[in-house]
């Protein structure tokens, strides 16, 4: 039994904009800029893909501030509308921080023990079995060691990565974990180059984990992982929860994913996922990937700077329409 969870926000909603303006910080980086909250009009295709390519999902938990897409049929029995107030801890609302929401996903009412978390810019492009996400109740993910690296201006999400790794190394001894789970950290599911890198990091730098893969892809999680991390690290998670916007002191949901990796509670899997910003230079490539279903999954990031948003978003919708022309049961 596997559920899906997706976060969605309508950045054009005047009521939401008014609420956000009451708390908006004077200065923001690209983690809190307006493009992080705009809707590309792609959610109908997200639902069509789920219904067509992963019909085995038990329930979809659609997490929202309160607004809903006009197309959505809220009477669908596989759909659970989850408002922030339904699961967020007392004193944390309103929040405009995805980090705050993400580290509390396990509190969603009626959520299955095993679930897959999606951002609203992550799409499935072709049929995927349950075993791409869980095997015998154990989450599937990439477990090779990837050193953390920062390029250019360091934003809030990079701070979260560093914070996450600090928590991981505080709670796990790399020597011990490698002795227990070497066959998961170095595995035939990964590329040979990845295995050499993990082996060298283990031999040359055995004292600490130096990083794991930043998967901008749907992630498989167990609720018990969230509960364990909250038990071990309540203070920093509470701080993250209480922040109205994403800040440099936050953890994000990757702490849960990497906790599963560091603890050995995962099955080795190499995710076939393509990640790109959508702009005038990449839109052709993105449409080609969609129309030819070249990968299992696709993550379409918001671009930095000004773009012809209306044209690009319509072009991408046209590409999805070619592979998913029929309405799903989640549409009115």
> What does the radius of gyration come to?
20 Å
CATH architect. name? Alpha-Beta Complex
CATH C-level label: Alpha Beta
Would you count the extended β strands for me? 11
Beta-strand percent range = 5-15%
Strand order of the largest sheet: 3-2-1-4-8
Estimate the mean pLDDT confidence: 93
Q: List the total number of helices.
A: 11
- What is the N-to-C order of secondary-structure elements (H for helix, E for strand)? EHHEEHEEEEHHHEHHHEEHEH
CA(first)-CA(last) distance: 26 Å
Instruction: Identify the overall geometry.
Output: globular
Question: If you had to describe this structure to a student in words, what would you say it looks like?
Answer:
This protein is α/β, with parallel strands linked by helices. It has helices spanning 14-23, 43-53, 98-102, 156-171, 174-185, 192-204, 223-232, 234-242, 254-263, 283-291, 309-323; strands at 2-8, 59-64, 79-83, 114-118, 122-124, 134-135, 138-141, 219-222, 267-268, 273-277, 297-301. The strands form three sheets. A five-stranded mixed β-sheet has the order 3-2-1-4-8. The chain is globular, with a radius of gyration of 20 Å.
Keyword list:
332 residues, three-stranded mixed beta sheet, 11 helices
Give the structure's gist in a few sentences.
The protein has 332 residues and is an alpha/beta fold. The chain has eleven helices and eleven strands. It has one domain (2-323): Spore Coat Polysaccharide Biosynthesis Protein SpsA, Chain A, CATH 3.90.550.
Topology:
Elements: E1 2-8, H1 14-23, H2 43-53, E2 59-64, E3 79-83, H3 98-102, E4 114-118, E5 122-124, E6 134-135, E7 138-141, H4 156-171, H5 174-185, H6 192-204, E8 219-222, H7 223-232, H8 234-242, H9 254-263, E9 267-268, E10 273-277, H10 283-291, E11 297-301, H11 309-323
Parallel strand pairs: 1-2, 1-4, 2-3, 7-9, 10-11
Antiparallel strand pairs: 4-8, 5-11, 6-7
